């Protein structure tokens, strides 16, 4: 990989540190004499040290099914490490001494101190870490293999999980790969076991859950469940990540819980063009990745594939029950669980999810429906972005809305692109009425409510992007909700809401605070929020100033008094 890079980019990916920079690092690590052949780190190892080569050289290799693949050689003045080193989670490569010499080993805790306090070294290292992960993803080699089928919803589920979490893997399609039977024989699995994950040597996982995948790959930092965190953020969409960045940068102990991958619903957007500072646009995944890196740089602990079951709101500090049996504690909770697309009332809908029915339009879904006819149901910006994106790969895109047009729900720049695209047809006052197929979607029907005419087509790919249903079931009567299930906050809380909640303080709730003191709601999950990324980021960031106020109240408690609400 290193030899293929242009010289300018190589200087950024594998920078050579100056004597002055090495001297500043020296106080954070310990010197080690190493011999050729010594293994300094394995892929499954957590809390790997940053390794700075003082003399000799080390090599970075990627173990795989067919043996090792050389990634690069790190020489004197250079360092080995990437984003997993900063997070203290399992790495992606094996590090071995190539030429005997001396290295400086810097523990991950000291590395985090360096990137937070030394501006020059922080820029050098963070850029290198990010570019190295990008390089690993494009390298095409990994010790992780996903054996699946394009006709399997669970294969798509695992592919999206790995892709959205920027974890490199090798994909094997049982429907087209000629060597799949040999692979099955070698690992004693069959077609009925698909999808199968093989990694860490020869370990086999049959259709694992996302939590099992994250645990197997060591994707999450180890966090002591006895710790009472300053702030737990539930959800790592734009609002949750903004809260994490601002909270951690201001010295708070921040713990983020995310059920799938950073970015939330916005993370699945193919291109966002109206977000401030990105005139040429940016994908939702890239935007989420940058925000995630910022939060990690400042020390936030972020755990993915972590499903929250309930908030226990009858005690302080607050506790959250997780699906794996753990209970985590915090003084303040920030609810940033967002919303999901509403399910249509269609027979067989759940049967076709992942095998013809999708709730996101990423490049993975685009590959499945390349050169085919597709339907998108929905009239918001996400649906518009999906239509424009899919039109580049699909034969024809049908965009269906119940309204008379798109002007009330979609940005004008997207409407113009849809109008000017020859292979996008807008169907107004139209709704999907039926889904048909055997093991995957094969036919659909729709009806025009204006004319009453119905149509049935042999279309096998439908993207549902309608409405918004808040992810609030886990709150279980802890906070006041509106009639649609979104969380009421601040001045939207009525006297009746606070009376029912037995609000115990003399002050009224802060902006973004719920009917439960010290519990905030930000982004799409909040009642009355503007469903835009910039708004979500703004709410997440400003919530931190109120978090500080609540933490000061806890530090110097006052006598509870009845609230006076105008």
Structure characterization notes:
The protein has 566 residues and is an alpha/beta fold. The protein folds into 4 domains: 2-139, Jelly Rolls (Sandwich), CATH 2.60.120; 145-217, Glutaredoxin; 228-340 and 469-555, FAD/NAD(P)-binding domain, CATH 3.50.50; 349-464, 3-Layer(bba) Sandwich (FAD/NAD(P)-binding domain), CATH 3.50.50.60. The radius of gyration is 25 Å and the shape is globular.
Summarize the structure.
This protein has 566 residues and is α/β, with parallel strands linked by helices. It has 4 domains: 2-139, Jelly Rolls; 145-217, Glutaredoxin (3-Layer(aba) Sandwich); 228-340 and 469-555, FAD/NAD(P)-binding domain (3-Layer(bba) Sandwich), CATH 3.50.50.60; 349-464, FAD/NAD(P)-binding domain (3-Layer(bba) Sandwich).
Please describe the topology of this protein.
Blueprint: H1 7-13, H2 19-26, E1 30-34, E2 39-41, E3 50-64, E4 67-74, E5 79-80, H3 83-87, E6 94-106, H4 108-117, H5 119-139, E7 145-148, H6 153-164, E8 170-173, H7 180-187, E9 196-199, E10 203-206, H8 210-217, E11 228-234, H9 238-249, E12 254-257, H10 284-297, E13 301-303, E14 308-312, E15 318-322, E16 327-335, E17 339-340, H11 349-352, E18 357-358, H12 363-368, E19 373-377, H13 381-391, E20 396-400, H14 412-420, E21 424-427, E22 430-437, E23 441-448, E24 454-457, E25 462-464, E26 469-470, H15 495-501, E27 519-521, H16 533-555
Parallel strand pairs: 7-8, 11-12, 11-16, 12-13, 16-27, 18-25, 19-20, 19-25, 20-21
Antiparallel strand pairs: 1-6, 2-6, 3-4, 3-5, 3-6, 7-9, 9-10, 14-15, 15-16, 17-26, 22-23, 23-24
């Amino acid at each position: 990989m290193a030899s293929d890079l242009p010289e300018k980019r190589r200087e950024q990916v594998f920078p050579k540190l100056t004597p002055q920079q090495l001297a500043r690092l020296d106080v954070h690590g310990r010197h080690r004499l190493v011999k050729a052949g010594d293994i300094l780190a394995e892929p499954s190892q957590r809390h790997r040290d940053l390794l700075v080569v003082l003399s000799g050289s080390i090599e970075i290799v990627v173990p795989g099914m067919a043996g090792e693949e050389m990634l690069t050689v790190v020489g004197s003045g250079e360092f080995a490490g990437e984003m997993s080193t900063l997070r203290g989670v399992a790495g992606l490569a094996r590090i071995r001494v190539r030429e005997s010499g001396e290295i400086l080993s810097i523990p991950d805790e000291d590395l985090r101190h360096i990137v937070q306090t030394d501006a020059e070294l922080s820029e050098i290292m963070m850029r290198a870490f990010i570019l190295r992960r990008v390089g690993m993803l494009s390298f095409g080699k990994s010790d992780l293999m996903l054996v699946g089928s394009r006709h399997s919803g669970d294969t798509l589920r695992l592919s999206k999980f790995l892709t959205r979490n920027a974890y490199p893997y090798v994909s094997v399609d049982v429907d087209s790969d000629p060597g799949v039977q040999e692979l099955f024989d070698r690992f004693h699995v069959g077609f009925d076991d698909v999808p199968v994950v093989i990694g860490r040597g020869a370990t086999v996982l049959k259709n694992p859950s996302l939590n099992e995948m994250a645990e197997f790959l060591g994707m999450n930092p180890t966090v002591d469940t006895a710790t009472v965190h300053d702030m737990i953020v539930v959800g790592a969409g734009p609002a949750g990540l903004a809260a994490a960045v601002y909270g951690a940068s201001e010295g708070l102990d921040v713990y983020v819980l995310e059920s799938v991958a950073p970015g939330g619903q916005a993370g699945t957007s193919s291109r966002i063009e109206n977000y401030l500072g990105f005139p040429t646009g940016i994908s939702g995944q890239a935007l989420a990745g940058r925000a995630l890196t910022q939060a990690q740089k400042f020390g936030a602990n972020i755990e993915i594939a972590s499903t929250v079951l309930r908030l226990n709101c009858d005690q302080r500090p607050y506790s959250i029950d997780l699906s794996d049996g753990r209970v985590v504690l915090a003084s303040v909770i920030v609810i940033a669980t967002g919303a999901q697309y509403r399910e249509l009332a269609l027979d067989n809908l759940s049967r076709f999810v992942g095998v013809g029915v999708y709730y996101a339009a990423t490049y993975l879904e685009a590959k499945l429906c390349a050169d085919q006819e597709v339907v998108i149901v929905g009239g918001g910006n996400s649906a518009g972005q999906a239509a424009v994106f899919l039109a580049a790969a699909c034969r024809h895109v049908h965009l269906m809305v119940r309204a008379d047009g798109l002007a009330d729900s979609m940005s004008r720049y997207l409407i113009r692109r849809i109008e000017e695209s020859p292979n996008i047809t807008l169907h107004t006052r139209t709704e999907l009425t039926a889904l048909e197929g055997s093991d995957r979607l094969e036919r659909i029907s729709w009806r025009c409510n204006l004319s009453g005419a119905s149509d049935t087509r042999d279309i096998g790919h439908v993207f549902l992007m309608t409405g918004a249903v808040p992810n609030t079931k886990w709150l279980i009567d802890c906070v006041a909700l509106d009639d649609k299930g979104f969380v009421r906050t601040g001045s939207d809380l009525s006297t009746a809401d606070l009376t029912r909640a037995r609000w115990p303080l003399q002050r009224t709730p802060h902006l973004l605070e719920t009917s439960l003191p010290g519990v905030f709601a930000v982004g799409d999950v909040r009642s009355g929020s503007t469903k835009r990324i910039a708004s979500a980021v703004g709410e997440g960031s400003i919530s931190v100033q109120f978090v500080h106020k609540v933490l000061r109240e806890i530090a110097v408690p006052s006598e509870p008094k009845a609230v006076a609400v105008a």
